[in-house]
Amino acid sequence: MVRAPSLRLLAAVWSVPPLLVLIQALIASGAAALPGALLREGVPWAIWIAVTPVVFARAARPDALRGREIAAHVALALACAVGFGLLVGVGYRITRPETYTLWAAVRMSVFDWLPFQPLIYAGVLAAGLAVDAGRRRRDAELARAQLETQLAVAQLSALRAQLQPHFLFNTLNAAVALARAGDADGAARVLILLGELLRQLLRGDAPQEVPLREELSLLDTYLEIQRVRFGARLQVGWQVADDVREALVPQLVLQPLVENALQHGIAPRSRAGRLDITATRRGDRLRLSVCDDGPGVAPGFSLAEATGVGLRNTRERLRRLYGERGDLALATTEDRTTCAIELPLRTAGEALRG
Q1: CATH class of 151-353
Q2: Where do the structural domains in the chain lie, given as residue ranges?
Q3: Closest alpha carbon to 277 in 260, 296, 294, 257
Q4: pLDDT value of position 242
Q5: Beta bridge partners of 146
Q6: pLDDT number for residue 205
Q7: Average pLDDT, integer, range 15-27
Q8: Among candidates 298, 316, 180, which has minimal Cα distance to 253?
Q9: 331 with 338: CB under 8 angstroms?
Q10: pLDDT exceeds cutoff 90 at 165
Q11: Can you tell me the distance from the alpha carbon of 343 to that of 248, in angstroms, rounded to the nearest whole number?
């Protein structure tokens, strides 16, 4: 249902015709003519203040221009014309009793205004139809935007859900490997840490984005699992700027990068390897990176063609959350491989205000 204009707005709009009448009377006959002109040809316009909401309400009906509704519009337009004429006639009778009888004044006024009032009604109806059409268009756009948002959230949730079992199975495989190697304490430690991680990851109300400090806490638990697996072969360095710890990041965004570095940079060799995890601010953007000193990626490797679940899903989540403002890059120098993410820098408070 289209909302009718406020009383104040209606009064302002329908005061224009009587104002023009008063200006004309002032020019033609002076200030003495103003009270009579206002009563005769100003007050009757107040009828439209009451009629306009009714017309707008009927214009908002699905069948506003069909069958019985057309007949109702015609009847209401004629009633407005007669009512307006009656008020004008009464005004003439009051202000000029020596010239007009009540019947003569009413008859004259009704016939004088009968051709014009239906035209005014048609204009009000057209305005109501236009307002209702705009409202329907906005409602449709809002519904479409809500549907697209729901679809995007569902897709993001599906991508995150793919990461969780992938991460779970890899961790369970690590526990199985430790158990087969006779390291029962190590396997138990992995399973305990895994339980802590799952409590965070499998929350029903888990948001798509979390403060970086929460993501780092989760990542630290994940690395504890990997330290059980790799022992002294895994060295980790942290470089996290204090001014980005409250920045929002996609949940589970760093773990796939670390897992990729472990798989390709640490696991293939027997000597110790190092991971460096950094988080810094670059203007209005946040840069997260995971570096390893492993052998690097194979020649011709492309993130766009990557088939692994972790990097592929991370790239897709960034695209869906941030569009062109989110970026994932992988580069190898002589002795370092760096996987870096850049995304808009914002906090939870800024997200709520936005």
Answers
A1: alpha beta
A2: 7-115, 151-353
A3: 257
A4: 93
A5: none
A6: 58
A7: 71
A8: 316
A9: yes
A10: no
A11: 9
